[in-house]
Write a structure and sequence with these properties.
The protein has 112 residues and is mostly helical. Helix content is 70%, strand content 4%. It has 5 helices and 2 strands; from the N terminus they run αβααβαα. It is globular and about 45 Å long. It comes from Betta splendens (Siamese fighting fish).
């Protein structure tokens, strides 16, 4: 399988491994989203210890305002986050550095 196909399959698998834990198995609840962010994004991109921050993320992801995040909503925001991080990594690498935890954290936040 090609790298891109593996990455696509990985995104789908990660989404569903969390969405199937509570309620509708095709959407993420706020609790599932919080757990996914804590376990998958880590300290670099996640501020999940603050309930208000989780609410903000949920609201920004829940485009149809149904109280859950479906796969399409998840992918739209994930694509934007990936583009923001790509710009930072590109600029950081061109500056002669390979990136670090603090760099990723600041770079992605600057692009929001």
């Amino acid at each position: 399988m090609s790298n891109l196909l593996e990455l696509m399959a990985g995104l789908i698998q990660v989404f569903h491994s969390y969405s199937e834990k509570e309620g509708n198995k095709y959407t993420l609840t706020k609790g599932e989203l919080k757990t996914m962010m804590q376990e998958q994004l880590g300290d670099e991109l996640s501020q999940c210890n603050d309930p208000a921050e989780v609410d903000k993320v949920m609201k920004s992801l829940d485009l149809n305002e149904d109280g859950e995040v479906d796969f399409q909503e998840f992918m739209l925001v994930f694509a934007l986050l990936t583009m923001a991080c790509h710009e930072f990594f590109r600029d950081h690498k061109e500056g002669g550095k390979e990136g670090c935890k603090e760099g990723r954290k600041e770079g992605c936040k600057e692009q929001k």
